[in-house]
Design a protein that fits this description.
Two copies of one chain form a homodimer. Chain A is α/β, with parallel strands linked by helices. The first copy, chain A, folds into two domains: 134 residues, Nucleotidyltransferase, domain 5 (2-Layer Sandwich), CATH 3.30.420.40; 172 residues, 2-Layer Sandwich (Nucleotidyltransferase, domain 5), CATH 3.30.420.40. The first copy, chain A, is 41% helix and 21% strand. Chain A has twelve helices and 13 strands. In chain A, strands 3-2-1-4-8 form a five-stranded mixed beta sheet. In chain A, a hairpin with a 4-residue loop joins strand 5 and strand 6. The longest helix of chain A is centred in the last third of the chain and has 25 residues. The first copy, chain A, is globular. Chain A starts with a strand and ends with a helix. Chains A, B: It is an enzyme of class 2 (transferase).
């Protein structure tokens, strides 16, 4: 039997698992609830128990696996295999994840942060088409990202490479949770889209259902903004245009800098699909020089929820090939 | 005897050569004039003759060399070792550089574009301190750059990685030779600095020697702008501040994206030294998030004219290690 990979996507609500071939085909997948009680001390034991249970359920052995990869929130120390500051897991203190999982499963383990791991997934089996240069941007509650360049996942000197959410797109703009102003995240995350809508609604005088909903104090979401825009609400279209301007500027500049074969946009906000992508594309074209404009593609993510487990398996495969 | 490297820096005026150790120490260096007559057809033969002459002069043999690296203007095909569109060499048609040089010297040859090669030089033996993640920006007639990430020189899908001169820093700003607007090059190259000065002088009403020189139709250079600013000309200080704002925005965003250990600024405009660097640093701090601000350094280039030959030797060393 060909050796297999295990991919884990550790999230605040669920922990997703998959067993994959070295070609990236998902053979088994399952998930368990994340138990973040007691400072998250049950999480690693739960992961171990779930893996060992499934391995025996499928009548497999530890020797059947090349390695386990995992994407996690928080700050990671890749070499040591530790995580700290993953607040949605209640992991405020440093967690020795790698040592515990390797000891209890007998399988080599590697981890990285969740956005980087999702980037590896979209690059391997999704929109990135396994090209050596792919940039991934995820528009969710925040804006994260990951960069693969010349086949390598980038980390930078302090692990911050790929933090495209904190690229300054609007100097002097909205204040960000990071402490500076005008970050991409402030205008293109799910909350950012709504922030832009609220801000622009103060100036907008015309007829608009979106403006009315905001003025009425309704609980407007990013999805509402895009839904109104797709229904041709003039104000909502202005809001979407503004969001796509900032996205196009950021996507354009990361492309001017790295010239990837594709910039892949994922996350909840990207559910707006081609409606969003085509508008980002227009500004991308305005903000890139010809040689980049004609070689770098702006794409939508393709793997959805599976990007995490697939990317985690890719991480394990890459890492074990290097050692 | 330990094997040596040959580095070549091919420019429009001179061709610089050096023989280096594998530690990057320059043991011999020399240069010849670039003869770009007859569509530049003498250039490659001149390079070959010069190398073979020096090798015999130093009583060395082709076996004493690991390889030859070269930085060149124009568009390069790294695999084929060809160059096209190097207009300052009159190389409008494709030149088969690699084949000719390897056949005539018997030494393996590799080339890359000059900004990438200078980046390798500054990374190896200059301000980059041989770290795996270094970004280099050169402020000359144009603005070029090169990126080393996880130890690899980046190229991107179409060879445009590192073209930081065409990052959009001023949407709707000055038109660039590339066809789009607001490129870093339009406001921070030698001509860009003067462009900013001329543009701002139209609005400036106060007393200023720089403004007077511009209004008198004098031939003001980028160096003049910095000289006036260092002499505390109020208008020149405003111009320098504007230039450093754009540089700080671009350097900040490439750092938010890649988190290199350093962004190294070189080229003619960087002759303004710490006066320039400290002002770029201030805006860099405004435009980066804390984890990047505290880990990425903004530095001045250290190798000057030697960056090209040293980087070319680094290119040869890296390339030959891979094959």
């Amino acid at each position: 039997m060909d050796k297999k990979l295990i991919g884990i996507d550790l999230g605040g609500t669920t922990i997703k698992f998959a067993i994959l071939t070295t070609d990236g085909d998902v053979q088994q997948k399952w998930s368990i609830e994340t138990n973040s009680l007691d400072e998250g001390r049950h999480i690693v034991p739960d992961i171990i128990e779930s893996i060992n249970h499934r391995i025996s359920l499928y009548e497999m052995k530890q020797e059947d696996f090349i390695g386990i990869g995992m994407g996690t929130p928080g700050s990671v120390d890749i070499k040591k295999g530790t995580v700290v500051g993953a607040y949605n897991l209640n992991w405020t203190k440093k967690q020795n994840v790698k040592i515990q999982i390797e000891e209890a499963t007998g399988i080599p383990f590697v981890l990285d942060n969740d956005a980087n791991v999702a980037a590896l997934g979209e690059r391997w089996k999704g929109a990135g088409e396994n090209n050596p240069d792919v940039v991934f941007i995820t528009l969710g509650t925040g804006v994260g990202g990951g960069i693969i360049a010349e086949g390598n996942l980038l980390h930078g000197v302090n692990g911050c490479a790929g933090e495209i959410g904190h690229v300054t797109v609007d100097p002097g703009g909205f204040e960000c949770t990071c402490g500076k102003r005008g970050c991409l995240e402030t205008v293109s995350s799910a909350t950012g889209v709504v922030r832009v809508a609220r801000h622009m609604s103060e100036e907008y005088a015309g007829d608009s259902q979106l403006k009315q909903a905001i003025d009425d104090g309704q609980d407007v979401s990013s999805k509402d903004v895009f839904d109104y825009a797709q229904a041709e609400d003039a104000f909502a279209l202005m809001v979407v245009d503004r969001v796509c301007y900032f996205l196009g500027l950021a996507v354009g500049n990361v492309s001017n800098t790295l010239n990837p074969s594709s910039v892949v946009i994922g996350g909840g906000v990207s559910a707006a699909g081609e409606f969003l992508r085509s508008r980002v594309q227009n500004y991308f074209e305005e903000f890139t020089f010809p040689e980049v404009r004609n070689s770098t593609q702006v794409k939508l993510a393709q793997l959805g929820n599976e990007a995490g487990v697939i990317g985690a398996a890719s991480l394990a495969l890459q890492f074990m090939e290097k050692v």
